[in-house]
Design brief:
Elements: H1 3-7, E1 12-17, E2 28-33, H2 43-48, E3 55-58, E4 64-68, H3 71-78
């Protein structure tokens, strides 16, 4: 499986590198790279130049929205972009 395949479908995707990210909203797909998805050869980590514990939020158009070690920063970034969850 490729990262591009995980991002298909017009949704936000949150990758956690060496950490299981908390989905910040029901419409965000959260994926643990190195956990539920094996990063064979370290390709995903190199592609994102990610460090342990870092998360990368990818917008529906495939561009990186934010990279951080701070879950609160992800929540704050998405707050104006997504409707409040029920």
């Amino acid at each position: 499986m490729r990262l591009f395949d995980l991002q298909r479908g017009g949704h936000w995707t949150l990758y956690g590198f060496g950490v299981r990210p908390r989905p910040p909203h029901p419409s965000v797909r959260a994926v643990a790279i190195g956990g539920e998805i094996t990063d064979t050869g370290g390709h995903a980590r190199r592609a994102y130049a990610a460090t342990d514990g870092e998360c990368a939020l990818v917008r529906p158009d495939g561009h990186i929205a934010i990279r951080t070690h701070d879950q609160a920063a992800i929540d704050a970034y998405l707050r104006p972009a997504l409707p409040q969850a029920p």
